[in-house]
Amino acid sequence: MSEFSPSLEEVVALRRHWADAGLIVVFTNGCFDLLHPGHVRYLTDARALGDRLIVGLNDDDSVRRLKGDDAYCPRPLNTLEDRLCMLKALRAVDVVLPFAEDTPLRVIKALLPDVLVKGGDYSEANIVGAREVRNKGGEVRIIPFVGNYSSTGLIRRIQAAGKQACDA
Asked: Is residue 3 part of a domain?
């Protein structure tokens, strides 16, 4: 994956260590292509649900598959290493774990976090790994969106501003 991130095995061992210490481990995931205040609030709120926060991060190929590889605005805009750097700089985030699949199911099954968190655009029925976490006795939580932030929205605003500048 990346020279800047731990392996799944290393994170599983760390998760076990935290569990042995009685700490509540929270997991969430996403692309986090353009880090914005909505992401920061979401991750801060997720971390508040436990003692440690692990963030699963889609690698570049999975972001392309999920978000599209549009010639006008190919995604991701930021490389995996850049996204890792930004997420790891946040106080709320304890570990960032890249994954190559389109969903983090393999990672969730390996970690079995105490709390699985997703944003307000999800319902529990469509949260990958929810069943596995619940079957282990964990919680699934949905954090409502705060504000009107989205990476796609930011990209559209930048594109519109660029078009206006070109038309002027």
From this structure: no
Q: Report the number of distinct structural domains present in the chain.
A: 1
Select from 115, 141, 117, 113 the least CA-distant residue to 16: 113
Among 91, 135, 107, which residue's Cα sits nearest to residue 30?
107
Residue 116 is predicted with a pLDDT of 98
Q: Which residues, in sequence order, are CB contacts of 34 under 8 Å at separation 6+?
A: 77, 78, 151, 154, 155
Written as six digits, the tokens of 91 are 């106080």
Asked if residues 76 and 83 have their Cβ atoms less than 8 Å apart, the reply is yes
What domain range includes position 23? Answer: 8-167
pTM of the model: 0.87
We report the CATH number of the domain holding residue 80 as 3.40.50.620
**Residues 111-149: tens digit of each pLDDT:** 999 999 999 888 899 999 999 999 999 999 999 987 676
